[in-house]
Design brief:
The complex is a heterodimer of chains A (477) and B (140). With 477 residues, chain A is α+β, with helices and mostly antiparallel strands. Chain A has helices at 32-37, 40-49, 109-112, 116-126, 141-150, 152-157, 185-191, 216-222, 238-258, 276-310, 390-394, 408-414, 417-426, 436-441, 450-459, and strands spanning 7-10, 13-16, 26-28, 59-66, 73-79, 86-88, 99-108, 204-213, 228-235, 270-272, 317-323, 325-333, 339-347, 350-351, 370-373, 381-386, 397-398, 430-433, 463-476. In chain A, strands 7, 8, 9, 11, 15, 16, 18 and 19 form an eight-stranded mixed β-sheet that branches. A seven-stranded mixed β-sheet of chain A has the order 1-2-3-4-5-13-12, sandwiched between helices. Chain A has a two-stranded antiparallel sheet with strand order 6-10. The model of chain A has no long low-confidence stretch (mean pLDDT 96). With 140 residues, chain B is an alpha+beta fold. Chain B has helices at 24-39, 61-79, and strands at residues 5-11, 14-21, 50-57, 82-91, 94-102, 117-118, 124-128, 131-139. Chain B is globular. The chains are: A alpha+beta (477), B alpha+beta (140).
């Protein structure tokens, strides 16, 4: 990205001043080096977001931002309905409530190592994943409506996990405001057999070791220590969420036209929060969020069972569960002013509440929300924690992953799935993939350096580093 | 590329699909074939065991392409199959056609990546001399 005309706000944040129809400035939370590597499209897209009606304070791009649909991936924007604020499909994306859940196993790397191959195989066999996979749960329409209203709470009621786990999930496992009636029949039909399925692409189930702890107090609050094995999963709302996005891309396009909204990009179709279309999309989107929360709750239970099949002594406990493609209603004080109810869009960005936030579980309240940042199967993932400053910077948001450095096609020119598998095996990382091409697409070298992203996030003050995790086994969808 | 062919092209974190053909129908069919090859690498090995009707409407040719690809994704998912081929009949503002495929079989199909949706990004339907091109980016 061109950086000459950007204004440096702090070491880790640069601003594009409001001009040319922008209602607010755009802020990119990255230092010079990361900015220079960033796609020019990030500037174009975050500038477009700043033009949307009712946007508050600034359109924000996280350190892992890259070219997305309408919003950049890594885009955050908050809208005030009292100022004509909108809800936009481009700010949420196709995989509604895609996110990461991390589980603690209570076992050390030494304990897991002798049976690593066995546990990876068991996880591969027990958790449905890949193209064409179906879940073990069969639902009818009424049953699915209960999932869309109840989310993780529904899953726990069905015996998938324990009630006390929900405290460690955003929205306590169930987001309010779901309107299953706003979800199309097609979306529901596509969702009937998919609860408890991982999907494909960049979705995974990964065994990780806590390699380094940066913040011992926060690590202790989160219950993690160096050498401990964690189990993380990354997935979302599956075809139901994809169909809700597709349906409302069409509906919001009509609404944008009806209301004569001047949109800089077709992917930014939107409707006022206080409009029939805006309310319906929000209700359908929340229903899909609950679908994703139920999905991760079931997968976590399946994965925990699989893990205990191999290690009966393991005490598998949830660390936290974050969603990184959402729109949530939150109260924020803007520039020290009164608290306002805002519709905060996070597209490829993680909510990162700071210490003391009432929505956090009591045991984490002193240290802030865990921010689970998924890296690659060959490098690292991070656990960060929300800071007191993050609410004032980017509506309490942080990065979500490494971000691709290379397109999938380019990755396929550089790697073959077999080679990726072999190279990782040589480094002691066991890979179980449903798709060889998928492994090549997801080659660690095709992603940006996650260390730089974590550093930049900390430097910008969005979240602070708690621990780095090193992968030792990965099941790829 | 030959006058009637398809390709998957490079785009950021996702894929673009491009179909070429002597008619708009052929370009639409080829764009769909490119999309099928993302989900199943050897999509030509998908047998035409089931035929499902697929239709879509759109106010212009470009919107119609997105709607057509999304209708194919939904139809395959509802039927519980992966697709190998399709036929399209394009009229003013609508496309009617059918798609053929079979349930995914890991012993014969090389699974790739599920497509979440067709997008407006790099969306283009146009006549280029003797051929039509139909393309867009799909989210995977």
């Amino acid at each position: 990205m061109r950086t000459s005309d950007l204004i440096q706000v702090s070491e880790g944040c640069h601003e594009i001043p409001a001009a040319g129809g922008m209602n607010v400035p755009a802020r990119i939370f990255a230092g010079r080096a990361l900015l220079e590597e960033m796609d020019e499209k990030v500037r174009e897209q975050i500038t477009n977001v700043a033009r949307l009606p009712g946007i508050v304070k600034a359109a924000c791009a996280m350190p892992d931002a890259h070219w997305g649909y309408g919003f950049p991936i890594g885009g955050v924007a908050a809208f005030d309905p009292a100022e004509g604020g909108v809800i936009s499909m481009g700010g949420i994306g196709y995989d509604i409530s895609c996110g990461v859940r991390t589980l603690r196993t209570g076992l050390s790397e030494e304990e897991v190592a002798p049976r690593l191959e066995k546990v990876a195989t068991t996880l591969f066999e027990r958790v449905p994943a890949g193209v064409g996979s179906e879940g073990k749960i069969r639902l009818d329409r009424k049953g699915l409506d209960r999932v869309l209203l109840g989310g993780g709470r529904w899953a726990v009621e069905q015996g998938w996990g324990e009630p006390d786990e929900l405290e460690f999930v955003e929205e306590r496992g169930c987001m309010g405001g779901a309107d299953p009636g706003a979800v199309s029949d097609t979306a529901k039909s596509r969702g009937l057999n998919q609860i408890g399925t991982l999907g494909s692409g960049n979705h995974y189930l990964e065994l990780q070791v806590v390699e380094e702890v940066f913040d011992p107090a926060a690590a202790s609050a989160f219950g993690i220590a160096p050498g401990e094995v964690l189990l993380s999963l990354h997935c979302g709302s599956r075809a139901l969420g994809h169909q809700v996005a597709t349906d409302y891309q069409r509906e919001l396009a009509k609404a944008s036209k009806r209301l004569a909204l001047a949109l800089p990009d077709r992917e930014l179709v939107c409707a006022p929060i206080d409009s029939p279309e805006g309310r319906r999309y929000f209700g359908a989107m929340v229903a899909a969020v609950n679908g994703a929360l139920a999905n991760r709750q079931v997968i976590a239970a399946l994965a925990a069972r699989a893990f205990r099949e191999v290690f009966p002594q393991a005490r598998v406990r949830i660390l936290y569960d974050v969603s990184h493609n959402t729109c949530k209603v939150e109260e924020h004080s803007v520039d020290g002013g009164r608290r306002r109810r805002l519709w905060v869009h996070r597209k490829g960005a993680t909510r990162a509440f700071g210490p003391g936030h009432p929505d956090l579980p009591a045991s984490y309240r002193d240290v802030g929300q865990p921010v689970l940042v998924g890296g690659t199967m060959g490098t690292a993932s991070y656990v960060l924690a929300g800071t007191a400053a993050s609410a004032g910077l980017a509506f309490a948001s942080a990065c979500h992953g490494a971000g691709r450095a290379m397109s999938r096609t380019e990755a396929l020119r550089n790697w073959r799935g077999e080679r990726v598998e072999r190279e990782l095996a040589a480094r002691g990382i066991v890979i179980k993939g449903h798709s060889l091409r998928g492994l090549a697409e997801e080659a660690p070298g095709a992603y940006k350096d996650i260390r730089a992203v974590a550093e930049a996030t900390e430097r910008a003050g969005l979240a602070r580093k708690v621990a780095r995790l090193r992968p030792i086994g990965c099941v790829k969808g | 590329m030959a006058p009637g062919s398809y390709e998957v092209f490079e785009h950021g974190a996702d894929y673009g699909v491009r179909g070429l053909g002597p008619t708009m129908e052929a370009a639409f069919e080829n764009a769909a074939r490119a999309m099928f090859s993302i989900a199943v690498e050897n999509s030509s090995a998908v047998r035409p065991a089931r035929r499902i009707p697929v239709s879509a409407v759109g106010s212009d040719a470009e919107t119609l392409l997105v709607e057509w690809l999304n209708a194919l994704l939904a139809a395959a998912s509802l039927e519980g199959i992966v697709l190998g081929d399709c036929r399209a009949r394009v009229a003013e503002g609508s496309v009617n056609g059918e798609a053929v495929g079979e349930p995914f079989d890991s012993s014969r199909h090389a699974g790739g990546t599920e497509v979440k949706g067709a997008t407006y990004t790099l969306l283009r339907v146009a006549r280029e001399g003797e051929r039509f091109v139909a393309q867009c980016v799909v989210d995977v």
